[in-house]
Every structure is written in structure tokens, then in C-alpha cells.
Amino acid sequence: MNSDHGRLSKTTTVGLIAGDYVVLAADKRATAGVGVYHKRVKKIHRVDNYIAMTISGLVADAQFLIEQARYISGRYKREVGKNIMVSSLANYVGLILQAYLRSSPYIVQLLIGGYDQKGPQLYYLDLYGSLTSEKYMATGSGSPVAFGVLEEGYRENMSLDEAIELAYKAVSTAIKRDGFTGEGVDIVIIGPDTYREETRLFRQDLVVK
């Protein structure tokens, strides 16, 4: 699925848990080598009405894994009659990454976040298929900067509004430091009976919601 001709999207994505909610955020710039090939890319993809995935790495690889996650979720719902657990879906995606690791590895970093009967869930997967449960996490070329913002500002008892602003700050701060990150920030909020998206675009140092 991946190849040397795939577009490599260097980016910044973050995720964090606040109360009953998962907040995901990502910039909107896609790059190929040192060039910018798109300024309005979506890097947070809805898998179902209670779960989403952020992507960084090779675009073709990430798109394939998104479609696989949607297929797995849909098939489970049809066959079992209920939603798949977020942790189970993350494990399935991890198994796909592990299965192709030696022959044709998928060059990605993924965050899978959602809300199920266990509450808000956030999982990180690397190209090896390693899976970890996180309270907050950052991926991509701007992740060192974003991680610093998250570590300084994250509290387990923070409100949803505070979590949204922290996620936005983490990505927007990375934008100032990382040339592969830019244009604006997409934000997704998932919680009990909630799936909400918003976009904040940068124009002449102004934030346009």
C-alpha cells in the first residue's frame, strides 16, 4: 500500500481526555518533501459517530487504515448488533500494522479517540503496531513542541472548554516552531451523545472560527 511515491504528511496532532470527553486537534497543512501541496487537509477522520482517528505519516497508508477502521467498525455493528469498543478497534488496527511490518510497513502515527461504555478513551499507535492508552498525546513533526504545551497545561480535572483551548494551543504553538505544520487547527470533541467539529483558520495573525 505504501510506496516511495506516497505523499509524506508531516504534521502535528494531539489528543487529550477531559472528564467525559476526548478532544482531538490537528493542523491543516500537508507537505511532500520540503513543499506544501495542500493547505486545507483534514487530519482527523470520523470512523463512527462516537470515534475518530488522527493521522500523521504517509497519506496513502493513513487513508487505507482509516478505511479499514471504518470497515471493521461497520462489520462489527452489523454482525454483533452493537458498537465496537474503542479499545477493540484500536487493537484491530494495531494488528494490521504488525502484520505488514516486515514486508511493507505502514509509515504512520495514529491517535484513536472515542467514547463508549467505559467512558472516554484515547489510544496511540506507532508504525510497529504498539498500542498505549493515554490521557494526552501528540504525534507528528511538531509533537515535541505540542507535547511540552500539553505537559505544562494538562490537568485531569480540567473542564471541556479548558481542554479544547489546551489542544488548540498545543497545535498552534507547534505551528510557530515547525515549518511542516500550519494553516489552521481542526478540533473534534467526542463524548456522551456528542460528536462535534470546529475549525480555526489563520489569516494575517487572526483566528477565524
Summarize the structure.
By secondary structure, the protein is of the alpha+beta class. It is built from four helices and 14 strands.
Spell out the CATH superfamily.
Answer: Aminohydrolase, N-terminal nucleophile (Ntn) domain
| Main sheet characteristics | 6 strands, antiparallel
> What would you report as the Rg, rounded to the nearest angstrom?
16 Å
The coarse overall form would be globular
Structural class: alpha+beta
Written overview of the protein:
Helices cover 31% and strands 39% of the residues. The protein is α+β, with helices and mostly antiparallel strands and 209 residues long. The protein has one domain: Aminohydrolase, N-terminal nucleophile (Ntn) domain (Glutamine Phosphoribosylpyrophosphate, subunit 1, domain 1, 4-Layer Sandwich), CATH 3.60.20. Strands 1, 6, 7, 8, 9 and 10 form a six-stranded antiparallel β-sheet that branches. A hairpin with a 5-residue loop joins β9 and β10.
Helices, strands, pairings?
Blueprint: E1 8-9, E2 12-18, E3 21-27, E4 30-32, E5 35-38, E6 44-48, E7 51-58, H1 59-80, H2 86-99, E8 108-116, E9 119-125, E10 131-133, E11 136-140, H3 143-153, H4 160-177, E12 184-191, E13 194-203, E14 206-208
Antiparallel strand pairs: 1-7, 2-3, 2-11, 3-12, 4-5, 6-7, 7-8, 8-9, 9-10, 12-13, 13-14
Helix pairs in contact: 1-2, 3-4
